[in-house]
Amino acid sequence: MSEMRYPFLDLAKVNAPYEDALAEAAVRVVRSGRYIGGPEVEAFERELADMTGVPYIIGVSNGLDALRLTLRAMVAQGRLREGDGVVVPANTYIASVLAISDAGLRPVLVNPDDRTMNLSAEGLERALSENDGVRAVMPVHLYGRVAWDADIREMCLRHRLAVLEDNAQAIGARSTADGLYGGRMTGALGDAGAFSFYPPKNTGALGDAGAVATHDPELAKIVRALANYGADRRYHNIYTGFNCRMDPIQAAMLRVKLPYTDKENADRFERALAYERTIERADVVKPLMSEAVTDCVWHQYVIRVPADKRDAMRRALETAGAGTDIHYAVPPHMQPCYARLAHGDLSLTERMAAELISLPIATGTTVEDASEIARIINAIEI
Ligand SMILES: *Cc1c(COP(=O)(O)O)cnc(C)c1O
Question: How far is the CA of 5 from the centre of ligand 1 (A)?
Answer without folding.
Answer: 28
